[in-house]
Amino acid sequence: MADVVMEDERVEFVVEAELWSGHDGLMKACLKAIEAGLEQIDAPRAGAAVILFSDDATVHELNRRFRDKDRPTNVLSFPAPEREGYPGDVILAYETCAKEAQAAGISLIDHAAHLALHGVLHLNGFDHQEENEAVEMEALETAVLTGLGMQDPYLVQE
Fold first, then answer.
1. Which CATH architecture has domain 3-147?
2. How confident is the model at residue 66, as a pLDDT?
3. CA-CA distance, 14 to 103, in Å (whole number)?
4. What pLDDT shows up at residue 158?
């Protein structure tokens, strides 16, 4: 069962997978990264994005169903239609995020903050399909995260 554990005017955090529960400061770090990122973009979408802390099984099923990729991934973003009045949903998969953070030598909290920011940027129209889009998105993420004292996520292998 999922529990809303923190709400803000720009984000609502929901913990679905208990594995996320033991990480003090997780939501605070994600909120700081998201707020700092939204401050850097023109006209962010109104309403509170939903950040769901889930697991590999859930993300695997969503990835298969909506992206035709039969595997888990670290983060998925689902922009809401404008008429819904909120930006959309971002889902993080615990096991994949934990493995990536360990392999990169960074804290799970910093990695989750990066991925939450990354997902919220997707909800606000950012993408990385084309090289110029990727450069812009990565530069924004790097500026925000290093500005908060976190490691540049693109200097480590994720």
1. 3-Layer(aba) Sandwich (3.40)
2. 95
3. 26
4. 41
Rounded distance between C-alpha atoms, residue 104 and residue 83, angstroms: 39
Of 48, 53, 49, give the one whose Cα is nearest residue 3.
53
How far is it, in rounded angstroms, from Cα 2 to Cα 79? Answer: 20
Residue 21 and residue 79: Cα distance in Å, rounded?
A: 26
Among 15, 1, 10, 7, which Cα is nearest to 88's?
Answer: 10
| CA–CA distance, 114 with 117 (Å, rounded to integer) | 5
| CA nearest to 93, candidates 119, 127, 121, 124 | 119
Does residue 149 carry a pLDDT above 60?
yes
**C-beta of residue 128 within 8 angstroms of C-beta of residue 138:** yes
- Helix crossing, 26-39 with 131-147: angle to 10°? 120
Q: In this structure, are residues 109 and 145 in contact, taking their beta carbons and an 8 Å threshold?
A: no
Which residue reads 């594995």 in tokens? 19
Annotated domain spans of the chain: 3-147
Predicted model pTM = 0.92
The predicted-structure confidence for 96-142, as pLDDT tens digits, reads as follows: 999 999 999 999 999 999 999 999 999 999 888 778 888 999 999 99
